[in-house]
Amino acid sequence: MSANLNHRQAGYNLLTGQGLEIGAFHQPATIPAHCSIEYCDAQSKAEASRAFPELNSDDLVDVEHICDLDKQGLSIFEAERFDFVILNHVIEHVANPIKVIEELFRITKAGGHLIISAPDKQFTFDKNRALTTFDHLKAEYDHQITEVTDEHYIDFLQGVHPDLFEIVKDKPQQLQVHINNVKKRREHAHVWDSQTFSEFMHNTLALLQLKATCLFVSLGNDNQIEYFSVWQKECEAS
Asked: What's the whole-model pTM score?
């Protein structure tokens, strides 16, 4: 992602204390100097460099915590561990987005901040794909899904590389090779625009009975790439 991300800075400036960024990859958040941060990902810097040779390995962050959101959630972290947690352009890759939101809030302290962003399909290669419905996401949560199915990746290929299906027509083995390739790269499983991601956040918080206030938001029509938001986890009433 090479787009200008200056619109995020006002959100980052709200952060204080010790935080965690998940999936920072080669574009870590520019946090205030008074904050400290740790990095978590599903693979090490060396593994990421091999999987994504198009990236400059020197730009990749050093990962302190290896954790697969689909398989483990964030179970390696105790509840209310961090003052803030950042998840930029990760949730579209996971098998169970509602479960991820639940885990993010679990490890964030009361009064702490959660930054979350997702690509707005209008400005990405997902523009020809159908929006993911909340019913679809709730079904994945209810069934405790822990793996992105091949059907999600077929939808990705149909939307992003439609010509491929004429090439592999009547060649299921070749199609499976392409599916396996996008699975290895953890390509986008779910698709939102800014409006539907906002609805997803509000619906998810209501479903999980989580109380949080949105302190900052930047939408795709304004920044030309994403829904970006900062949420503050409410303190429990004493």
From this structure: 0.93
